[in-house]
Every structure is written in C-alpha cells, then in structure tokens.
Design brief:
With 382 residues, the chain is an alpha/beta fold. It has 14 helices and eight strands.
C-alpha cells in the first residue's frame, strides 16, 4: 500500500470521527434556532423603526441584592395572607377613595349638593362616567326606598354597591396550568414605567410559595438591566432565568424559555416583555409576534397587562390597545397604595371585560397580592 493511499485513509477516518463527535455534542445541547429561523417559523418579519423609550420602571424600587449561594434562597410569603396585611396599609392612606365617599355619606342630610359631591369624588377617582351614574342612582334609590338616615347604614349600602360594581363573581384565578404535559405560559405586557419586571419577579414568588416550579424569560432585550434585575429576582427563590443578547429578538427569548420549560417539566413559564408605548405600531406588532412564536410550542394560558394605577384614564387607553394586540386575560394594578385613584379597578375591568387579578401595594418583595373585591372595598372604607 502506497504512502499516499495510507494518508487518504487516515484523513477519511479523522473526518468521520469528527462528524460523529459533533453530532453527539449537538444532540446533548439544546440550541435555539437563530432569529432568522424563528421568522420563518412564523412566516413573518416585523420591521419597525421605533425603539422603546428608556425604561422608567423599577427606578423607585431597585432589584434586591443578588443571591450568593443556595443557602440564601428565600421562602416567599404565602399569597393568601398578603391582602390582609396590605389592607391595613391601604386603609391608612390619607388620600384613599373611601375617605372622600364616607365624608359625604356621613352628613346628616343627603341633599342635591351632597350627591353632586359624591359624583365628583367618584369621577376624580377614575371610576368612569357610566359606572359613577350607576352607583349614585342605585344609592339614591336605596336611601329613599329603605329610609336610610344614618351614616352606618349609608356606609353599608355604599359597600354593597362598590362590591357589585367591581364584580365579586369574576374569576380572578391566575391561569397558570398547562395541558397535555405542557407548562402554563404567562406573558406579562405593558407600557414603560408600570413596574412589569418587578411584577414578574413578585409573581414568581407567588408561584414558588404555592410549590410550583417556574422558569423566567427575560424577553426585554432592549435593556440589559431588565434581564439582570429579573435574574436577581429569580435567584432569590431558586428560579432559572433565560435571557438573550442585548438588542436580540424578543421572540427568540420567549421561544427558548418555553422550550426550556417543556424540556425540564416546569409548571409555569413567566415571560417578561419590553415596555412599549401603545402608540408605537411597530412595537405592538412585535409583541404580537412574541406571543405567536411562543404558541408554536405551547399555548399562552394567561396574558397579564400591568397598569400603573396612578395613570388614571390613560391606563384605559393602554388597556384597549394592548387588548386588541395580545388578547389580555387579566390585569395587574401597581402603585395602588396611597392614592385616591382606586376607581381605576372598576373602570379598567369595564373597558376590557377582564378582571383585575393582582394588585401591588408597596415596595416589598411580597407586596403583590391576589385581588379580592370584598377585601379591597373593606380596605377603602376602613
């Protein structure tokens, strides 16, 4: 056998072995299709000139210090007791909606001026014109028919009417359970500055407290600090965070997060998205794409819209646009403590036809509570 032939045989063996090793390594490592492949998956490419404005969210409530070891993993507070604790905080607020309403109803005589002042209080609290007219009309009828002539009975009637407007029978359960062995997928959306990333971190704590396994997706790729912050929230409770390159395709991150959740048998996948102005059509289209790409693998079981309660009627406009793009199924109201804008709960539910499911009443890690209509009204009127 000539030397040339021998060399050719050796080269061929090396090539075959190299290819085999590459295949084994490739099979052992789950890789994500690059953004171009994801675009082909959805048969669309979103073109937009806009870039999200600088994020304002969480500047007032910086992320907690990173966990340094497994020993520092926290056990979050059970969600069932949170609203009881937060109720006292809301009741202490000197600018609460309830104080304004009760100051009118505590008068000895409810004349036309009193009813007009009651209307003004409700409108100022962003209850909305239709709901305000309905509440005042119902109260007037009860006062006349039932002969209500003392403040305590008037307060009880007001409580009943407020609870009725908020909707005690609405299903406020977080839809976080998947079917067919797939994880539940919760997509969190909203405009800049509402506290989305903090909400996702707090929501992870709620789920961990319920003994559910969670994986976080940092699909806010426009801001590295958002991914860092989300990862810190996850580390505090032993939850993984999937993130991509800064400025990368958010749909890719959403895709990979669900992929990770399926591979590891995770109960719930939480995906944080970049804050985007509802007036930016390109960015809203991109948000729709994130949802569509995720659903190539598993249905999105919940889309939570985070709204800053202090934004008032502007929050309703945001809700309307986001609802058209990604089919919002639940609302999270943040920054609700210390404000006279509690009526936004009623208004936003009527605008979207979906319930408020969580409220944020403080800056603490566990200051996100499942919403309960009766507890909330009792806190307002305490």
């Amino acid at each position: 056998m000539t030397l040339t032939v021998l060399l050719l045989i050796i080269i061929a063996v090396v090539v075959v072995l190299g290819t085999g090793i590459g295949l084994v390594i490739g099979r052992g490592r789950k890789t994500l299709p690059p953004p171009a492949d994801l675009d082909r998956l959805t048969e669309e490419v979103i073109e937009h000139p806009e870039h999200p404005d600088p994020h304002l969210e969480d500047e007032a409530s910086p992320a907690p210090e990173p966990a340094t070891s497994v020993d520092t993993i926290e056990r979050p507070e059970a969600p069932q007791g949170r609203l009881v604790r937060l109720r006292a905080r809301l009741a202490r607020s000197q600018g609460s909606l309830g104080k304004g309403l009760l100051s009118v109803l505590s008068r000895s005589t409810l004349d036309d001026d009193a009813w007009e002042e009651l209307e003004d209080t409700l409108l100022a609290a962003d209850v909305g014109v239709t709901a305000t007219d309905e509440l005042v009309a119902n109260l007037k009828t009860r006062v006349r028919v039932e002969g209500i002539d003392d403040p305590e009975r008037a307060k009880a009637a007001l409580r009943d009417e407020l609870v009725g407007l908020i909707g005690p029978s609405l299903d406020r359960t977080l839809n976080s359970t998947g079917t067919g062995g797939l994880p539940g997928v919760v997509l969190v959306v909203g405009v800049n500055g509402t506290g989305k990333t903090t909400t996702v971190g707090r929501l992870a704590r709620v789920l961990v407290a319920e003994d559910k396994s969670v994986v976080l997706g940092a699909a806010d790729t426009f801001r590295a600090a958002a991914a860092d912050q989300l990862q810190t929230w996850g580390e505090r409770v032993g939850v993984q965070t999937v993130r991509g390159p800064e400025g990368g395709d958010p749909a890719s991150v959403g895709f990979e997060t669900v992929q990770r959740g399926i591979a590891e048998g995770t109960d719930v996948v939480l995906v944080d998205t970049a804050g985007r102005l509802h007036t930016k059509s390109g960015l809203m289209d991109e948000l729709g794409k994130v949802k569509r790409v995720i659903e190539k693998q598993a249905p999105v079981t919940e889309v939570l819209l985070v709204i800053d309660a202090t934004t008032g009627q502007n929050g309703l406009t945001q809700a309307r646009v986001f609802g058209e793009v990604v089919d919002v199924t639940g609302i999270v109201l943040t920054k609700l403590d210390g404000t006279a804008k509690g009526g936004i709960v009623i208004a936003v539910q009527r605008e979207l036809g979906v319930p408020v499911k969580f409220i944020g009443l403080g800056e603490g890690a566990d200051d996100l509570a499942p919403f309960d209509a009766e507890e909330f009204v009792d806190a307002l009127l305490a």
